[in-house]
């Protein structure tokens, strides 16, 4: 279920980006008032702005809803996921190699004494 909502979330995000890039800025309306490009729109002279604005608003609301749903699922998952990067100590214990704690116990913590050779 969570994967399906995540896929829908990504699809909505991509659609939002495309719709926002398709919309004209506010400054483009002044040129359209003098007849420039009004007949070249797919949805008529007025229709594209309202259609794209409504679709963007609906997709933004859906994006918000899927974001909240995914956040709820993430808060309910109390334990770490099974897939991913395991803890380093767990890997060391399973491999049978000495751990960092074992190596620290084996090391002599005294500094070496340099002897002067009288030659």
Automatic annotation (TrEMBL):
Record's keyword terms, sorted: Cell membrane, Membrane, Protein transport, Translocation, Transmembrane, Transmembrane helix, Transport
InterPro entries the UniProt entry points to: SecG (IPR004692)
Domain of life: Bacteria
Annotated membrane topology: Multi-pass membrane protein
Compartments it resides in: Cell membrane
Region (Disordered): 97-119
Gene Ontology biological process: intracellular protein transmembrane transport; protein secretion; protein transport by the Sec complex
NCBIfam families given in the database record: secG
Family: Belongs to the SecG family.
Function: Involved in protein export. Participates in an early event of protein translocation.
Protein name: Protein-export membrane protein SecG
Native source organism of the sequence: Billgrantia pellis
Lineage, highest ranks first: Bacteria, Pseudomonadati, Pseudomonadota, Gammaproteobacteria, Oceanospirillales
């Amino acid at each position: 279920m969570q994967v399906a909502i995540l896929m829908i979330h990504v699809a909505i995000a991509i659609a939002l980006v495309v719709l926002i890039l398709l919309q004209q800025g506010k400054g483009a309306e002044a040129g359209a008032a003098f007849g420039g490009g009004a007949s070249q729109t797919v949805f008529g002279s007025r229709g594209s702005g309202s259609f794209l604005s409504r679709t963007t608003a609906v997709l933004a609301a859906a994006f918000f809803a899927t974001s909240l749903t995914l956040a709820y699922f993430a808060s309910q998952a109390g334990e770490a996921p099974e897939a991913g990067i395991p803890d380093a100590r767990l890997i060391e214990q399973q491999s049978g190699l000495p751990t960092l704690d074992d190596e620290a116990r084996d090391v002599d913590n005294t500094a070496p004494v340099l002897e002067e050779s009288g030659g």
